Fold:
Amino acid sequence: MLRLPDVSKAPFETLVDQHGATVLRVCRAVVGFHEAQDAWSETFLAALRAYPELPDGANVEAWLVTIAHRKAIDITRARARAPVPVDEAPETRSTVGLPTVPDPIWTEVAALPSRQRQAVAYHYLAGLPYQQVADIIGGSVEAARRAAADGINSLRRNHPQSEQKADSR
Amino acid sequence: MSTPQADPTAFLAGLYDPDPLALSRLRDSLVGAAAAADLIDVAYRTIDSPVGTLLLAATEQGLVRVAFDLEDHDLVLVGLADKISPRVLLAPKRLEDATRQLSEYFEGGRTTFSLPLDFRLTTGFRRAVLAHLPAIAYGHTESYSQVALAAGSPRAVRAVGTACATNPIPVVVPCHRVVRSDGSFGGYRGGPAAKSLLLELERTGAR
Structure:
C-alpha cells in the first residue's frame, strides 16, 4: 500500500476499502448479523464526520472499532428500550438480490455474554491487541484476555464443525 | 496462507467471510447518506477516454481535478486528501455532468465545457493563465508568449509553461491548446501523445 512520509491522512475511501470488511464482522458479532448493517453505516458515517480531527498517525482500525463499539451500544440500548412484539417476523424485501444467509456460527456468537462477544470481536475479528480491547470495553487487560478466551472456548464447544474436527477423543 | 491445522481458531472461519455483496450495498448507502449530510468534501470517479483512464474529482464548488493515468490516480487522491480534505469518497453522482460533457467532447460533439470549476489547487499568476485558456477557441492554438501577453505579463513565458504543466483541470481547461512558437507541441501533463491526440481531435471535430 501507498505510504508517503509527508502525507498526514489517507483518503477516506481507503479506510472503507481497507477496514470495511473488518468493521462489518465486528458489527455482526456485537449487535447481531441483521442489525450489523445499521451499525456499520452509522459507524462509517460518524467516522467520516470526525475524520479530519483524527490525530495524524492514530491507529485507524482501533479508532473505527471504538466507534463501532459505541454505535453497537446505542443500537442495543434502543432495541431494549423499544421492544417490538411480533408474532411473526415481518417479511422484508431484499433490495438487491438474495439476502445473505449467515453461517451458523453467528448464532453461537450472538448467544455469548456481551463482554465475551465484544472481546472475541475486537481481538479475533479486528485483530486488536488485548490492551486496546481493554481500552474499548473497560476493565483490565487480563480481564479482556479472559473474556476472549472464555468466549472462544464456548464457541469451540458449541460449534458443530469444531466437534467434527476435534481429534482428542 | 498459513497451515489451517495450526490455527486454533480455524472453526471461526465462518466469521471471516468477507461478504462482498453486503459490503458493496453498505458502501452505496454510505455514499448516499454522506452526500445527504454534506460530508463528501471531494467526490471522485474514473472514466475511460481516448487519452486513457481519467480521474475526475469535484468539491461542492465544482470540478477541482482531472488526472491522467500517468499521474498515478492513487497519488492524486492522496494529494487531494492532503490539500483539500481527507473526506474523499468514490461518489460518481457529483460528476455526472462532467462525465457526460467529457464523453461528448471526446466524440467530437462538444467544443466548450459548461461546468462549475473549483480553482483552489492553483493560485496567483497560474490561476490568471488558466482563466485565460478557455478563450482559446476549440481547434485553435496559442503560443506560450501569446498566453503570457493575454495574462498580462508578456515576459512571463516560462511561468505560463509552469501554469500549463500544473493545470489541475486539464482537458476541461484547455492547456493543450498552448503550444511552442515554432508550432511543436511542448510538454503536457498527460504526456505528449495525449496532447497530440487532443489537438488532432479538435482539428477534425472543428470542421
Notes: The domain at 12-83+102-162 of chain A is CATH 1.20.140.160 (Butyryl-CoA Dehydrogenase, subunit A; domain 3). Confidence is low (pLDDT under 50) at residues 162-169 of chain A.
